[in-house]
Design goal:
Strand content: 15-25%
CATH class: Alpha Beta
Number of strands: 4
Number of helices: 3
Strand order of the largest sheet: 2-1-3-4
Helix content: 40-55%
Largest sheet: 4 strands, mixed
CATH superfamily: Glutaredoxin
Radius of gyration: 13 Å
Length: 89
């Protein structure tokens, strides 16, 4: 069986309460879209380059289809618009 294609990358780190809020928002919006989202979470603490790039912006979502990024803070409406691109896949 092949792995499902990743829709989004979530740049995060342990103990990030904003990241937890973003994950909850993702779950809510996925229900609205009636679509299961395949999300790969990447802990930026593991990589100095990622810490430098995303350290003050996490959580950050990146669409794998076009590499567009959505930085925190975002609300359900902004997230929905960001994810609608995936519906065309």
């Amino acid at each position: 069986m092949t792995e499902p294609e990743v829709d989004l990358i979530l740049y995060t780190t342990m103990g990030c309460h904003l990241c937890e809020q973003a994950e909850a928002l993702l779950a809510t919006v996925a229900v609205i879209l009636s679509r299961e989202l395949v999300i790969e979470a990447i802990d930026i603490a593991e990589d100095a380059e990622l810490v430098e790039r995303f350290g003050i912006r996490i959580p950050v979502l990146k669409r794998t289809v076009d590499e567009a990024e959505l930085n925190w803070p975002f609300d359900a409406q902004q997230l929905l618009r960001f994810l609608l691109v995936l519906q065309a896949k």
